[in-house]
Amino acid sequence: MPAAVGQGQSILLVEDDDSVRLINRAVLEELGYKVHVARDGEEALRVFNRLDNVDLLLTDVGLPGMNGRQLAEVIQQLKPRLPVLFLTGYAEGAMTRADFLGPYMQLLTKPFTLELLASCVNSMLEKNDFSPDGHPLPKR
């Protein structure tokens, strides 16, 4: 497990699979982040609206009801520069749609290592993975 890198930033984690949600929450909290959880898009909106601040939306794409991409759209209307990290097992379908990732959005394909999750979250929170217009910078 990587060393703690977070500085108490607030992450809204949205995942319908209980075990995945619990593991990801534990990892992120161990890394120094404050994690708020929701099981679906509707619950995520309620959690988001009652929080003072959210620094990152970390959401599964395939949620029941409102999917992760729809959730991100709604939340980014409320907080336009909020970084969004999508987790998905369906990257082929998502990546073939050029318009799937909007500004300040990135995609992480399952399965992934906890180290990769930590690295993606850290770089997105540092805002060094985005151009001024919010699009991901090319990987070096």
Describe the SSE topology.
Elements: E1 10-14, H1 18-30, E2 34-38, H2 41-50, E3 56-60, H3 68-78, E4 84-88, H4 91-96, E5 105-109, H5 114-125
Parallel strand pairs: 1-2, 1-3, 3-4, 4-5
Helix pairs in contact: 2-3
Which short descriptors sum up this protein?
140 residues; 5 helices; 5-stranded parallel sheet; globular; Rossmann fold; alpha/beta
What does this structure look like?
With 140 residues, the chain is α/β, with parallel strands linked by helices. It has one domain: Response regulator (Rossmann fold, 3-Layer(aba) Sandwich), CATH 3.40.50. 37% of the residues lie in helices and 18% in strands. The protein is built from 5 helices and 5 strands, in the order E-H-E-H-E-H-E-H-E-H. The chain has helices spanning 18-30, 41-50, 68-78, 91-96, 114-125, and strands at 10-14, 34-38, 56-60, 84-88, 105-109. Strands 2-1-3-4-5 form a 5-stranded parallel beta sheet, sandwiched between helices. The longest helix has 13 residues, at 18-30. It is globular. The two termini are 24 Å apart.
Alpha-carbon Rg, integer: 14 Å
Number of strands: 5
Largest sheet strand order: 2-1-3-4-5
Helix segment tally: 5
The coarse silhouette is globular
Please describe the biggest sheet, giving its number of strands, its sense, and whether it closes into a barrel: 5 strands, parallel
Order of helices and strands: EHEHEHEHEH
Instruction: Give me the secondary-structure category.
Output: alpha/beta
Looking at how many chains there are and whether they match, the oligomeric state comes to single chain
Question: What separation lies between the terminal Cα atoms?
Answer: 24 Å
Could you list the spans in which at least 5 consecutive residues all have pLDDT below 50? none
CATH class: Alpha Beta
